[in-house]
Amino acid sequence: MRAFSRLARYSLTDLARSWWIAAYALFFAATTSTLLYFGEEPAQAVASVLSLVLIVIPLVSVIFGLTHLYGSRDFVELLLAQPVDRRSVFWGQYAGLSLALALAYVVGILGPFFWYGLENAADAGTLAVLLAAGTLLTFTFVGLAALVSVLTDNRMKALGGAVALWLYFAVVYDGLLLIVMILFQSYPLERPLLGLVLLNPLDLARVLVLLRLDVAALMGYTGAVFQSFFGSAWGVALALVSLAGWAAGPAVVAARVYRRKDF
Amino acid sequence: MVEFRHVDKSFGALTVLRGVDVRVRPGRITALVGPNAAGKTTLIKCLMGLVVPDAGDIFVDGVAVRGTAAYRDRIGYMVQVARFPDNLSLREVLDLVKDLRGRPATLEDLLLGLFALEPFLHRPVRVLSGGTRQKVGAVLAMMFDPEILVLDEPTASLDPLASRRQKDRILEERARGKTVLLASHSLAELEEVFDQLVFLLDGRVCFDGTPEELRELARERRLDRAIARLMEASGS
Q1: Residue contact A260–B82, C-beta within 8 A
Q2: Considering Cα of A30, then A34, then A35, then A37, what sign does the dihedral take?
Q3: CA A7 to CA A3: how far, in whole Å?
Q4: For an interface test with B, which of A10, A11, A64 has the most B Cβ atoms less than 10 Å from its Cβ?
Q5: CA-based nearest residue in chain B for residue A68
Q6: A84 contacts in B (CB within 8 Å)?
Q7: DSSP classification of residue B124
Q8: pLDDT digits (tens, 9 = 90+) for B95-106
Q9: Which of A15, A18, A84 has the CB atom closest to B69's CB atom?
Q10: Regarding predicted confidence, which is higher, B153 or A119?
């Protein structure tokens, strides 16, 4: 545990000084400021930021994560040659990397919202869900980057795999969902769809935030079913547990492979 | 004593180590030599737990090291390519390794002085040249005054003065009773340093003995020629 916390701290310190992380935070700060400045109310800005979050966070987390993990291979060899177990090195690096990206995101979004002021407590709650969803997505996609990086030593192959994963979750999965909905349109699909949403962290994050914005009515009967499910305490809990599962799952699998990996 | 027993390792279809048996004698300097891709670094990485052997065992003072980490507290390891987190200073890198070991680095100041690294202490590591990073690697390996030193290409990328100091330091460590295992692809570079020579070729031990024994075996006075003889005899 001592080795883990020290490694996470050093990794976070290293990345907190990185220009890339600063640029990432600035990007969120600039776009959120612009949306808040031109938008009529914070809820609108949250909806617009959400669209951005669902594209940018997974892509940056997976690509920056991979680049960082491959770039630090030589240093990892030096760390693994110390009297510390592999688990501490893996989780220390994963935590430092994920936290650096998540903090940049939270600071980048939160800063402008504080600057422009929140209109009411309900917006604060929605903002908290947006921040939590973005943070969990960061951990998920850094975990996926970690998984790809332990499965292959070929950087180009890894980069291709990472982009393919991002495409799958951001585009292909919803396309497949749409095909299923068209093929089975005469059947009641609302409940199976609920289950299918749990299988994609991006859809999960989208639904969690959107349902707080009172736009469920625009989504017809499906929206009403989703609202009644994810609006309930049980539904929110299940959604959060699923998102947390996504945040932990790929990293847990990567850690298992890492235990026997050759460096 | 460090002992490798019947160590096998393959990476996919590529067999790198084939039943390697090596005994690293305590208090002596053993050099692992061989051409590129002979398996030197892989063998060292197996000892350090970086590579998991397919078969065989490695012992440090009679205790099998597979799957354990505590034995590494007694070993100082100098990596072949020293790279550190870009945005940390040299001071922070040294502190990180000290934090991980959880004990003071008794030789830190002496080694920083020896390799003239004090001016770089508060600079980001990314601005250091390759040779300077190698010196940092040497300091990290030796600063805890470990009983066993494992040095992979210890003089690579070093300028002549630093190389001289590095070799003198290795000899001094032997004089202080330390066990040293070093790997090099260049025999001439470290000829003056080692007592014992292990020659690896295609993942097999071709020769294990003293330089004098090698000269006698190959009937050559120069070690590089003797090694060339061995390679010819092996059909390379």
Answers
A1: no
A2: positive
A3: 6
A4: A10
A5: B85
A6: 69, 100
A7: B
A8: 999 999 988 899
A9: A84
A10: B153
Residue of A nearest to B70 (CA): A83
DSSP states of B27-60 as a string? TSEEEEE-STTSSHHHHHHHHHTSS--SEEEEEE
The Cα A84–Cα A169 span in angstroms is: 36
| pLDDT confidence of residue B37 | 85
Q: Which of these, A225, A250, A76, lies nearest to A161 by C-alpha position?
A: A250
Of A252 and A119, more confident:
A252
Q: What is the DSSP letter of B82?
A: -
Q: Reading across the β-sheet that carries B204-209, which strands appear in turn?
A: B75-78, B148-152, B179-184, B29-33, B196-201, B204-209
Buried b / exposed e across A153-168, counting CB within 10 Å, b at 16+?
eeeeebbebbeebbee
Residue reference for tokens 């004990």: B103
Quick one: average pLDDT of A32-53? Answer: 83
ipTM: 0.88
Record: contact B140-A78, CB cut-off 8 A: yes
Q: Residue A217 — pLDDT band, cuts 50, 70, 90?
A: low
Quote the CA–CA distance of A61 and A98 in Å, as a whole number.
Answer: 8
Angle (CA) B164 B169 B173, round 5°: 150
Q: Give the pLDDT band of residue A192 (cuts 50, 70, 90).
A: confident
Q: Which of A257, A49, A55 is nearest to A143 (CA)?
A: A257
Nearest-neighbour CA in chain B from A27: distance (Å): 21
Q: How many domains does chain A have?
A: 1
CB pair distance less than 8 Å for B85 and A75: yes
Please check the confidence at residue B6 and state whether its pLDDT lies above 90.
Answer: yes
- Give chain A positions within 8 Å (CB) of B75: 81
Q: Distance between CA atoms of A147 and A180, rounded to whole angstroms? A: 29
Best CA proximity match to B57, nearest among B48, B66, B49: B66
Domain span at residue A59? 2-260
- Phi and psi at residue B205, to the nearest 5°: -80, 115
| Token pair for B96 | 């990180």
Report CB contact under 8 Å: B88, A14.
Answer: yes
CA atoms within 13 A on the CB side of B18: 10
